[in-house]
Protein backbone atom coordinates (compact mmCIF):
# COMPACT_ATOMS: atom_id res chain seq x y z
CA UNK A 1 0.00 0.00 0.00
CA UNK A 2 1.47 3.35 -1.06
CA UNK A 3 1.60 6.24 1.36
CA UNK A 4 0.61 9.20 -0.77
CA UNK A 5 0.93 12.73 0.59
CA UNK A 6 -0.98 15.54 -1.10
CA UNK A 7 -0.16 19.24 -1.67
CA UNK A 8 3.36 18.87 -0.33
CA UNK A 9 5.53 22.03 -0.11
CA UNK A 10 8.59 21.51 -2.26
CA UNK A 11 10.89 24.37 -1.20
CA UNK A 12 12.08 22.52 1.94
CA UNK A 13 12.86 19.51 -0.23
CA UNK A 14 15.41 21.44 -2.26
CA UNK A 15 18.67 23.07 -1.23
CA UNK A 16 17.73 26.40 -2.86
CA UNK A 17 14.45 26.56 -0.90
CA UNK A 18 12.15 27.83 -3.62
CA UNK A 19 9.08 26.61 -5.44
CA UNK A 20 5.46 25.64 -4.85
CA UNK A 21 3.67 22.44 -3.91
CA UNK A 22 3.39 19.00 -5.51
CA UNK A 23 -0.05 17.51 -5.88
CA UNK A 24 1.25 14.06 -4.93
CA UNK A 25 4.42 13.02 -3.11
CA UNK A 26 5.30 9.37 -2.58
CA UNK A 27 8.21 8.17 -0.49
CA UNK A 28 9.11 4.53 -1.06
CA UNK A 29 11.65 2.47 0.90
CA UNK A 30 12.51 0.10 -1.95
CA UNK A 31 12.27 -0.29 -5.70
CA UNK A 32 9.63 -3.02 -5.68
CA UNK A 33 6.94 -0.36 -5.24
CA UNK A 34 7.89 1.51 -8.41
CA UNK A 35 5.34 -0.28 -10.66
CA UNK A 36 2.61 0.68 -8.20
CA UNK A 37 3.81 4.30 -8.11
CA UNK A 38 3.76 4.46 -11.92
CA UNK A 39 0.24 2.99 -12.02
CA UNK A 40 -0.87 5.61 -9.49
CA UNK A 41 0.57 8.50 -11.54
CA UNK A 42 -1.05 7.10 -14.69
CA UNK A 43 -4.41 6.78 -13.00
CA UNK A 44 -4.18 10.38 -11.73
CA UNK A 45 -2.92 11.52 -15.15
CA UNK A 46 0.02 13.45 -13.71
CA UNK A 47 3.69 13.25 -14.74
CA UNK A 48 5.93 11.24 -12.46
CA UNK A 49 9.09 13.01 -11.30
CA UNK A 50 11.89 11.23 -9.39
CA UNK A 51 13.49 13.41 -6.72
CA UNK A 52 16.67 12.88 -4.74
CA UNK A 53 17.80 15.57 -2.27
CA UNK A 54 16.75 18.45 -4.51
CA UNK A 55 20.28 19.90 -4.72
CA UNK A 56 20.08 20.35 -8.47
CA UNK A 57 16.40 21.17 -8.77
CA UNK A 58 14.45 24.41 -8.93
CA UNK A 59 10.72 23.79 -8.64
CA UNK A 60 8.34 26.28 -10.26
CA UNK A 61 6.04 28.33 -8.03
CA UNK A 62 2.39 27.52 -7.42
CA UNK A 63 0.54 24.24 -7.37
CA UNK A 64 2.32 21.69 -9.53
CA UNK A 65 0.43 18.83 -11.11
CA UNK A 66 3.16 16.29 -10.46
CA UNK A 67 3.62 13.02 -8.68
CA UNK A 68 7.00 13.18 -7.00
CA UNK A 69 8.61 9.85 -6.12
CA UNK A 70 11.49 9.61 -3.69
CA UNK A 71 13.23 6.27 -3.54
CA UNK A 72 14.95 5.72 -0.19
CA UNK A 73 16.93 2.53 -0.75
CA UNK A 74 20.35 3.21 0.75
CA UNK A 75 22.82 0.35 0.32
CA UNK A 76 26.42 -0.15 -0.78
CA UNK A 77 27.95 -3.52 -1.58
CA UNK A 78 30.87 -5.02 -3.41
CA UNK A 79 29.59 -6.52 -6.64
CA UNK A 80 32.81 -8.24 -7.72
CA UNK A 81 36.60 -7.99 -7.56
CA UNK A 82 38.89 -8.54 -10.56
CA UNK A 83 42.61 -8.19 -10.00
CA UNK A 84 43.08 -4.50 -9.11
CA UNK A 85 39.51 -3.51 -9.81
CA UNK A 86 36.53 -3.61 -7.52
CA UNK A 87 32.97 -3.19 -8.74
CA UNK A 88 30.70 -1.55 -6.20
CA UNK A 89 26.91 -1.26 -6.38
CA UNK A 90 25.01 1.43 -4.50
CA UNK A 91 21.29 2.08 -4.13
CA UNK A 92 19.87 5.24 -5.70
CA UNK A 93 18.71 6.47 -2.30
CA UNK A 94 22.21 6.38 -0.79
CA UNK A 95 23.70 9.78 0.03
CA UNK A 96 26.39 10.35 -2.61
CA UNK A 97 28.96 11.50 -0.08
CA UNK A 98 28.30 8.47 2.16
CA UNK A 99 29.12 6.34 -0.88
CA UNK A 100 32.36 8.28 -1.50
CA UNK A 101 33.41 7.98 2.15
CA UNK A 102 32.67 4.22 2.09
CA UNK A 103 34.95 3.74 -0.94
CA UNK A 104 37.76 5.82 0.57
CA UNK A 105 37.63 3.93 3.86
CA UNK A 106 38.22 0.71 1.92
CA UNK A 107 41.01 2.08 -0.25
CA UNK A 108 38.99 2.06 -3.47
CA UNK A 109 40.10 4.90 -5.77
CA UNK A 110 38.03 6.64 -8.42
CA UNK A 111 35.48 8.95 -6.81
CA UNK A 112 37.57 10.66 -4.09
CA UNK A 113 37.56 14.06 -5.86
CA UNK A 114 33.76 13.91 -5.86
CA UNK A 115 33.78 14.16 -2.05
CA UNK A 116 31.27 16.56 -0.56
CA UNK A 117 28.90 16.79 -3.54
CA UNK A 118 25.40 16.95 -2.08
CA UNK A 119 22.61 14.69 -3.28
CA UNK A 120 21.90 11.05 -3.89
CA UNK A 121 23.58 8.26 -5.81
CA UNK A 122 20.51 7.97 -8.06
CA UNK A 123 20.89 11.55 -9.29
CA UNK A 124 24.65 11.36 -9.84
CA UNK A 125 24.51 9.95 -13.40
CA UNK A 126 21.76 12.37 -14.49
CA UNK A 127 24.20 15.25 -14.87
CA UNK A 128 27.38 13.15 -14.69
CA UNK A 129 28.55 14.86 -11.52
CA UNK A 130 32.07 16.14 -11.60
CA UNK A 131 34.59 18.14 -9.59
CA UNK A 132 38.34 18.70 -9.32
CA UNK A 133 39.20 16.75 -12.44
CA UNK A 134 36.99 13.71 -11.83
CA UNK A 135 33.64 12.86 -13.38
CA UNK A 136 31.29 10.00 -12.61
CA UNK A 137 31.66 8.96 -16.25
CA UNK A 138 35.20 7.73 -15.52
CA UNK A 139 34.05 5.06 -13.06
CA UNK A 140 30.38 4.35 -13.82
CA UNK A 141 29.83 0.93 -15.38
CA UNK A 142 26.06 0.61 -15.49
CA UNK A 143 22.83 1.81 -13.94
CA UNK A 144 19.83 -0.24 -12.95
CA UNK A 145 16.48 1.44 -13.46
CA UNK A 146 12.76 0.96 -13.66
CA UNK A 147 11.71 1.71 -17.23
CA UNK A 148 8.34 3.43 -16.84
CA UNK A 149 7.59 3.04 -20.56
CA UNK A 150 8.22 -0.68 -20.87
CA UNK A 151 7.15 -1.24 -17.24
CA UNK A 152 10.14 -3.38 -16.43
CA UNK A 153 13.50 -3.20 -14.65
CA UNK A 154 16.48 -2.70 -16.94
CA UNK A 155 20.28 -2.48 -16.72
CA UNK A 156 21.81 0.18 -18.91
CA UNK A 157 25.56 0.05 -19.65
CA UNK A 158 27.29 3.40 -19.22
CA UNK A 159 27.74 3.80 -22.98
CA UNK A 160 23.98 3.81 -23.40
CA UNK A 161 23.66 6.51 -20.72
CA UNK A 162 25.67 8.96 -22.93
CA UNK A 163 27.31 10.78 -20.04
CA UNK A 164 29.00 14.04 -20.97
CA UNK A 165 29.84 17.35 -19.30
CA UNK A 166 26.93 17.85 -16.84
CA UNK A 167 24.57 15.84 -18.98
CA UNK A 168 23.39 12.35 -19.95
CA UNK A 169 20.66 10.65 -21.93
CA UNK A 170 18.42 11.05 -18.88
CA UNK A 171 18.27 14.81 -19.58
CA UNK A 172 17.26 14.26 -23.20
CA UNK A 173 13.60 15.30 -23.55
CA UNK A 174 12.95 12.00 -25.39
CA UNK A 175 13.96 10.04 -22.26
CA UNK A 176 13.11 12.54 -19.51
CA UNK A 177 11.79 10.71 -16.45
CA UNK A 178 11.40 7.48 -18.41
CA UNK A 179 13.98 5.73 -16.23
CA UNK A 180 13.86 5.79 -12.45
CA UNK A 181 17.32 4.78 -11.37
CA UNK A 182 17.40 2.21 -8.60
CA UNK A 183 21.16 1.60 -8.30
CA UNK A 184 24.49 2.24 -9.99
CA UNK A 185 27.66 0.17 -10.36
CA UNK A 186 31.09 1.84 -10.32
CA UNK A 187 34.45 0.35 -11.23
CA UNK A 188 37.03 1.48 -8.66
CA UNK A 189 40.72 0.79 -8.39
CA UNK A 190 42.72 -0.86 -5.64
CA UNK A 191 45.82 0.96 -6.85
CA UNK A 192 47.11 4.23 -5.39
CA UNK A 193 45.20 7.31 -6.58
CA UNK A 194 46.39 8.90 -9.81
CA UNK A 195 48.30 12.21 -9.43
CA UNK A 196 45.98 15.20 -9.42
CA UNK A 197 46.42 18.06 -11.82
CA UNK A 198 43.88 20.49 -10.39
CA UNK A 199 45.77 23.60 -9.25
CA UNK A 200 43.82 24.23 -6.02
CA UNK A 201 44.43 20.67 -4.89
CA UNK A 202 48.11 20.76 -5.82
CA UNK A 203 48.48 24.02 -3.86
CA UNK A 204 46.75 22.44 -0.86
CA UNK A 205 49.19 19.53 -0.81
CA UNK A 206 52.12 21.88 -1.25
CA UNK A 207 51.11 23.97 1.76
CA UNK A 208 50.45 20.80 3.79
CA UNK A 209 53.77 19.33 2.58
CA UNK A 210 52.08 16.11 1.40
CA UNK A 211 54.11 14.39 -1.34
CA UNK A 212 52.03 11.30 -2.06
CA UNK A 213 48.48 12.03 -1.02
CA UNK A 214 46.31 9.14 0.12
CA UNK A 215 42.62 8.90 -0.73
CA UNK A 216 41.85 10.33 2.72
CA UNK A 217 44.24 13.26 2.08
CA UNK A 218 42.48 13.95 -1.23
CA UNK A 219 39.11 13.90 0.46
CA UNK A 220 40.36 16.35 3.13
CA UNK A 221 41.75 18.64 0.42
CA UNK A 222 38.54 18.59 -1.61
CA UNK A 223 36.31 19.16 1.43
CA UNK A 224 38.50 22.05 2.63
CA UNK A 225 38.53 23.74 -0.79
CA UNK A 226 34.80 23.21 -1.23
CA UNK A 227 34.09 24.89 2.12
CA UNK A 228 36.08 27.93 0.98
CA UNK A 229 34.23 28.22 -2.34
CA UNK A 230 30.67 27.13 -1.65
CA UNK A 231 28.19 28.36 0.92
CA UNK A 232 26.70 25.73 3.23
CA UNK A 233 23.21 25.27 1.82
CA UNK A 234 21.87 24.46 5.30
CA UNK A 235 22.42 28.11 6.31
CA UNK A 236 22.48 29.85 2.91
CA UNK A 237 20.13 28.06 0.49
CA UNK A 238 21.68 27.49 -2.94
CA UNK A 239 21.93 24.91 -5.72
CA UNK A 240 25.72 24.87 -6.13
CA UNK A 241 26.95 26.10 -9.50
CA UNK A 242 23.99 27.78 -11.12
CA UNK A 243 25.58 27.89 -14.59
CA UNK A 244 27.60 25.40 -16.60
CA UNK A 245 31.06 26.40 -17.75
CA UNK A 246 30.55 27.19 -21.45
CA UNK A 247 32.52 25.17 -24.00
CA UNK A 248 33.48 27.24 -27.04
CA UNK A 249 35.66 26.78 -30.15
CA UNK A 250 39.36 27.19 -29.35
CA UNK A 251 39.84 30.09 -31.83
CA UNK A 252 37.07 32.01 -30.13
CA UNK A 253 38.64 31.39 -26.71
CA UNK A 254 42.05 32.50 -28.03
CA UNK A 255 40.49 35.72 -29.32
CA UNK A 256 38.84 36.34 -25.95
CA UNK A 257 42.15 35.72 -24.22
CA UNK A 258 43.79 38.42 -26.34
CA UNK A 259 41.09 40.84 -25.26
CA UNK A 260 41.00 39.65 -21.61
CA UNK A 261 44.46 38.26 -20.70
CA UNK A 262 43.22 37.17 -17.23
CA UNK A 263 40.32 35.11 -18.55
CA UNK A 264 40.07 31.67 -16.94
CA UNK A 265 40.30 28.98 -19.63
CA UNK A 266 40.51 25.19 -19.44
CA UNK A 267 41.68 23.72 -22.76
CA UNK A 268 39.74 20.53 -23.60
CA UNK A 269 41.46 19.52 -26.85
CA UNK A 270 42.77 21.15 -30.05
CA UNK A 271 39.35 22.42 -31.01
CA UNK A 272 37.47 23.22 -27.81
CA UNK A 273 38.04 25.27 -24.67
CA UNK A 274 36.01 25.51 -21.48
CA UNK A 275 35.56 28.94 -19.89
CA UNK A 276 35.00 29.61 -16.20
CA UNK A 277 31.43 30.90 -16.10
CA UNK A 278 32.07 32.35 -12.62
CA UNK A 279 34.86 34.54 -14.01
CA UNK A 280 32.57 35.87 -16.75
CA UNK A 281 29.89 36.76 -14.20
CA UNK A 282 32.45 38.31 -11.89
CA UNK A 283 33.73 40.51 -14.74
CA UNK A 284 30.22 41.92 -15.11
CA UNK A 285 30.67 43.28 -11.57
CA UNK A 286 28.03 40.99 -10.14
CA UNK A 287 29.91 39.03 -7.48
CA UNK A 288 28.53 39.83 -4.02
CA UNK A 289 25.57 41.79 -5.43
CA UNK A 290 21.83 41.13 -5.36
CA UNK A 291 19.31 40.97 -8.15
CA UNK A 292 16.03 41.44 -6.31
CA UNK A 293 16.15 39.05 -3.35
CA UNK A 294 18.64 36.71 -5.05
CA UNK A 295 22.30 36.92 -4.07
CA UNK A 296 25.38 36.26 -6.19
CA UNK A 297 27.73 34.64 -3.69
CA UNK A 298 30.56 36.98 -2.70
CA UNK A 299 33.20 34.21 -2.84
CA UNK A 300 32.02 32.53 -6.04
CA UNK A 301 29.91 34.28 -8.67
CA UNK A 302 28.74 30.93 -10.05
CA UNK A 303 26.51 30.39 -7.03
CA UNK A 304 23.13 32.09 -6.61
CA UNK A 305 22.02 32.28 -3.00
CA UNK A 306 18.52 32.41 -1.61
CA UNK A 307 18.76 33.73 1.94
CA UNK A 308 15.70 35.97 1.39
CA UNK A 309 13.06 33.37 0.54
CA UNK A 310 13.03 34.28 -3.16
CA UNK A 311 10.46 32.57 -5.35
CA UNK A 312 11.33 30.54 -8.40
CA UNK A 313 10.22 33.53 -10.51
CA UNK A 314 12.69 35.79 -8.63
CA UNK A 315 15.49 33.31 -9.27
CA UNK A 316 14.64 33.05 -12.96
CA UNK A 317 14.59 36.84 -13.19
CA UNK A 318 18.06 36.99 -11.61
CA UNK A 319 19.24 34.25 -13.98
CA UNK A 320 17.96 36.15 -17.01
CA UNK A 321 19.61 39.36 -15.89
CA UNK A 322 22.96 37.55 -15.48
CA UNK A 323 22.57 35.82 -18.86
CA UNK A 324 21.89 39.18 -20.52
CA UNK A 325 24.88 40.92 -18.93
CA UNK A 326 27.30 38.09 -19.79
CA UNK A 327 25.91 37.92 -23.33
CA UNK A 328 26.29 41.68 -23.81
CA UNK A 329 29.85 41.80 -22.47
CA UNK A 330 31.31 38.59 -23.93
CA UNK A 331 28.84 37.40 -26.58
CA UNK A 332 28.54 34.10 -24.70
CA UNK A 333 25.26 32.49 -23.69
CA UNK A 334 25.48 30.75 -20.36
CA UNK A 335 23.41 27.66 -19.69
CA UNK A 336 21.71 27.03 -16.36
CA UNK A 337 22.83 23.89 -14.52
CA UNK A 338 19.96 23.01 -12.14
CA UNK A 339 16.77 21.67 -13.65
CA UNK A 340 13.58 23.74 -13.53
CA UNK A 341 10.68 21.41 -12.79
CA UNK A 342 7.00 22.21 -13.24
C1 LIG B 1 26.37 23.31 -2.51
C2 LIG B 1 26.28 22.45 -3.75
C3 LIG B 1 27.43 22.02 -4.37
C4 LIG B 1 27.36 21.21 -5.52
N1 LIG B 1 28.52 20.81 -6.11
C5 LIG B 1 28.48 20.05 -7.22
C6 LIG B 1 29.69 19.62 -7.85
O1 LIG B 1 30.78 19.88 -7.38
N2 LIG B 1 29.58 18.89 -8.99
C7 LIG B 1 28.38 18.54 -9.53
O2 LIG B 1 28.35 17.86 -10.56
N3 LIG B 1 27.21 18.93 -8.94
C8 LIG B 1 27.24 19.66 -7.82
N4 LIG B 1 26.07 20.07 -7.23
C9 LIG B 1 24.78 19.71 -7.85
C10 LIG B 1 24.11 18.48 -7.19
O3 LIG B 1 24.64 18.23 -5.92
C11 LIG B 1 24.27 17.22 -8.04
O4 LIG B 1 23.74 17.44 -9.32
C12 LIG B 1 23.57 16.02 -7.41
O5 LIG B 1 23.86 14.86 -8.16
C13 LIG B 1 22.07 16.17 -7.31
O6 LIG B 1 21.58 15.14 -6.47
P1 LIG B 1 20.12 15.22 -5.84
O7 LIG B 1 19.81 13.90 -5.23
O8 LIG B 1 20.01 16.38 -4.93
O9 LIG B 1 19.27 15.45 -7.16
P2 LIG B 1 17.88 16.18 -7.38
O10 LIG B 1 18.07 17.66 -7.41
O11 LIG B 1 16.87 15.64 -6.43
O12 LIG B 1 17.55 15.69 -8.85
C14 LIG B 1 18.39 16.09 -9.92
C15 LIG B 1 17.93 15.35 -11.19
O13 LIG B 1 18.08 13.95 -11.00
C16 LIG B 1 16.84 13.29 -11.21
N5 LIG B 1 16.80 12.15 -10.30
C17 LIG B 1 16.97 12.14 -8.97
N6 LIG B 1 16.91 10.88 -8.50
C18 LIG B 1 16.67 10.08 -9.56
C19 LIG B 1 16.47 8.68 -9.76
N7 LIG B 1 16.52 7.81 -8.72
N8 LIG B 1 16.24 8.21 -11.00
C20 LIG B 1 16.18 9.06 -12.06
N9 LIG B 1 16.35 10.38 -11.96
C21 LIG B 1 16.60 10.88 -10.73
C22 LIG B 1 15.79 14.32 -10.92
O14 LIG B 1 14.57 13.99 -11.54
C23 LIG B 1 16.44 15.56 -11.50
O15 LIG B 1 16.29 15.56 -12.90
C24 LIG B 1 26.10 20.86 -6.06
C25 LIG B 1 24.94 21.29 -5.42
C26 LIG B 1 25.02 22.07 -4.27
C27 LIG B 1 23.76 22.51 -3.59
Content-based structural category = alpha+beta
CATH topology of the largest domain: Uridine Diphospho-n-acetylenolpyruvylglucosamine Reductase, domain 3
Strand elements, count = 20
Please count the helical segments: 8
- Total of domains: 3
* Largest beta-sheet details: 5 strands, antiparallel
Strand order of the largest sheet: 6-7-12-10-11
Low-confidence stretches: none
CATH architecture of the largest domain: 2-Layer Sandwich
N- and C-termini, Cα separation: 27 Å
Mean pLDDT: 96
- Portion in beta strands: 25-35%
Characterise the protein shown here.
By secondary structure, this protein is α+β, with helices and mostly antiparallel strands. The chain folds into 3 domains: 4-71, 2-Layer Sandwich (Uridine Diphospho-n-acetylenolpyruvylglucosamine Reductase, domain 2), CATH 3.30.43.10; 76-189, Uridine Diphospho-n-acetylenolpyruvylglucosamine Reductase, domain 3 (2-Layer Sandwich); 238-341, Uridine Diphospho-n-acetylenolpyruvylglucosamine Reductase, domain 1. It is built from 8 helices and 20 strands. It has helices at residues 34-44, 96-105, 158-161, 199-208, 215-229, 250-259, 277-283, 312-330, and strands at 4-9, 21-28, 48-50, 57-59, 63-71, 76-82, 85-91, 130-131, 134-135, 140-147, 152-157, 179-189, 238-241, 247-249, 265-267, 272-275, 290-291, 294-296, 303-305, 339-341. The strands form 6 sheets. Strands 6-7-12-10-11 form a 5-stranded antiparallel beta sheet. A 4-stranded mixed beta sheet has the order 1-2-5-3, covered by helices on one side. The protein has a 4-stranded antiparallel beta sheet with strand order 13-19-18-17. A hairpin with a 4-residue loop joins strand 15 and strand 16 (272-275). Helix 4 crosses helix 5. The longest helix has 19 residues, at 312-330. The chain is globular and about 60 Å long. The mean pLDDT is 96. The chain binds flavin-adenine dinucleotide.
